[in-house]
Amino acid sequence: MAFVLAARQLACSPQQKLRLLVPGSRYISQAAAKVDVEFDYDAPLMKTEVPGPRSRELMKQLNIIQNAEAVHFFCNYEESRGNYLVDVDGNRMLDLYSQISSVPIGYSHPALVKVLQQPQNVSTFINRPALGILPPENFVERLQESLMSVAPKGMSQLITMACGSCSNENAFKTIFMWYRAPGCPDYSILSFMGAFHGRTLGCLATTHSKSIHKIDIPSFDWPIAPFPRLKYPLEEFVKENQQEEARCLEEVEDLIVKYRKKKKTVVGVIVEPIQSEGGDNHASDDFFRKLRDITRKHGCAFLVDEVQTGGGCTGKFWAHEHWDLDDPADLMTFSKKMMTGGFFHKEEFRPNAPYRIFNTWLGDPAKNLLLAEVINVIKREDLLDNAARAGKVLLTGLLDLQARYPQFISRVRGRGTFCSFDTPDESVRNKLILIARNKGVVLGGCGDKSIRFRPMLVFREHHAHLFLNIFSDILADFK
Amino acid sequence: MAFVLAARQLACSPQQKLRLLVPGSRYISQAAAKVDVEFDYDAPLMKTEVPGPRSRELMKQLNIIQNAEAVHFFCNYEESRGNYLVDVDGNRMLDLYSQISSVPIGYSHPALVKVLQQPQNVSTFINRPALGILPPENFVERLQESLMSVAPKGMSQLITMACGSCSNENAFKTIFMWYRAPGCPDYSILSFMGAFHGRTLGCLATTHSKSIHKIDIPSFDWPIAPFPRLKYPLEEFVKENQQEEARCLEEVEDLIVKYRKKKKTVVGVIVEPIQSEGGDNHASDDFFRKLRDITRKHGCAFLVDEVQTGGGCTGKFWAHEHWDLDDPADLMTFSKKMMTGGFFHKEEFRPNAPYRIFNTWLGDPAKNLLLAEVINVIKREDLLDNAARAGKVLLTGLLDLQARYPQFISRVRGRGTFCSFDTPDESVRNKLILIARNKGVVLGGCGDKSIRFRPMLVFREHHAHLFLNIFSDILADFK
Q1: Residue B306: which of B476, B142, B147, B76 has the closest Cα?
Q2: What does pTM read for this prediction?
Q3: ipTM of predicted assembly, 2 dp
Q4: Omega before A51 within 30 of 0, i.e. cis
Q5: What residues of chain B lie within 8 A of the CB of A73, using their CB?
């Protein structure tokens, strides 16, 4: 087990410039120079199986007050650093799942520690305002230096929200208010099979990734279009994939016409740049450009949900920037790695009266403060380029593993570090995740049988090599 | 203007035991001893009209990126302390609205400053986990010492959420999952006219406080029952009010039967202990006990929304504790003063599988940490008793003002500090709020023409006297 040989000492000492590398590793020898040596660990370090005895004890305690069956293990966040998550039994794992893709620049980043320690920031953390009526003095300035500095093309307007679900719910409402045709009986939002847009009742009407999410819950009769199911490797299935995308787009148009006839006018289309919870389903940039054209043609708003794809992990700040749209999207929601939820939109979608898009908190200045520093770090450390580079190493390595273990790995795909592959079935997928965890790597599943990579933005080329080394050993032993 | 005569110096010096009182005041002379002298100011201090020039400049800037018409003024939270909100133009106001009722123990409370300054707490503020899968080691312990220590009677189960809307959305889902009758075509939640339960699409189907909230937004066909419209003073209209409540309860039962027949089975009833946004509409404890009986009789879940009433302001930790139910409610949602959203519920409502009530963050341990300290302070300083006592002074004073100014003030009502009165119309109401603000008191409106009091839990008897003194002067001059 290669990782056991790696250096166990903390990489906290700034003077430490050299690293112990795994001898003879196929990947580690290409490791790039570390720039975040000051707060990252060197390698996984496992002491018990996971969940260990302390985690199991705490799971029992939690299960008394809520269903705790989804808990993987309990964590020691004080000891977690950079790409490494430490659990309550002292196990240190390379975290490629990052709290369901929601940690931007790693655990306990020194820049964020500093934000917390600055006396002038105390008030922001303990005096939470009702932002819509009584914002703090630096509210606009902070939005300008953080979110507005990464505003997607064409979108000059911004509302913050506390979470991703509230962001999508309020983006829907913004669309309904924008559309309002007098006498129009009812509106709908078109979404795609396999999509995940949240679990509150409005969002849930557009979420179709797993049936368990929707059982027993009343919903709206809103149209659901098929999302392309691409064949891999893409270069071998160019024509088939084009046909598949054309079929889906045709169905989108048919549904828009059909729902208009049944007086449930489609006023907006919501889509993820990469369907994440639904199984990391990609479509071509061309598909999204054509989808945008269809929404324009039929007068529907085009809403891009970047809750999981946003924040830099695809190598651009927003995944939909890869599409290079001439006619920008109308609205875009975010959350997770952005630390606050919210959405950008074009000026024409601006509500025509106060209190129409409103709730008590409308986000949280404490999160805006942390986000401003996160965006500073992303810019200062070129973390978008880093995601592109580290992602390339990861994807290349996964393609190599796919070539060597086609019985376990197929449909390798990805953009930046936002990578994934399919396994033969759910049982193999879950087994691989558990084995990897006990070898010191936290992975996440998605869809029926996919494994998704959601590392943080401080995931470097050498982390990719480290993972590939460990996973290669796992596959060599896997039966 | 009495308040100008009050001491302008900060009340921060612990040695300061005596206070300058307004000479000849009708109320101030009864002021109780201050126990929070160390962090509160003495009195309002006004330098400009509100919003002042700096606020107006910032409003213009904010309006470039979002509709900022709802903004009252911009705040200097660093300088805000205790019951006093300081704006960016240096005006210091007694805050009886507390960020739409969401500040529990006053601005910049020293106990919360201390929580922020303790090095062992840094990690909690910068490493936000996905609580449902990877909770921190102290998660259960922290819930036990905070939320579970104030769990309502009969409710052993707890889920945290990021905001009030998500709390109600997920409480609805919990009810739907609990009910699930095989083959049942569709479910509904019964709510009341005038209710406010949030603005996401599921919540909005139960919100009926203002029509602007719902225009253009698709909704569910769920039943809406009338909420009692009580006549005041209560002791003069005993029989009429009993009849009014009986009429509403009868309508609830009729709607349950009607919606069952139309295959939209009512599986839950949601109600606020005091309808807040809708105009501070009260009903008797007897009304709620009978409503609980009706839900039991028809097999519907009984969900109490304590987002605004919870946290101690009525003199009990939860307003519905005043009802003294033999058969406890089934679920109760909270947010605002609790700093985190969430809901308690009975064990029989526990989801039967993991991931059914789930989202990425499921609240925020940083808010749980602050809340634990807030609950400590509430207990240590007897702030529930304080709310009862200060509320009594406030209500008595309002009744006195009503007797003296019946042309401006009617229907004075309240429980603890959760008080309100009606004005002749919306225009008078809004004028009074603006005048009060320029005299150094922040008030909130609700319903069509009511003024509501939502002070923090550190609002003491002497603050009530101070307010009554200022407001009495305003009414004497009001035309």
Answers
A1: B147
A2: 0.93
A3: 0.93
A4: yes
A5: 134
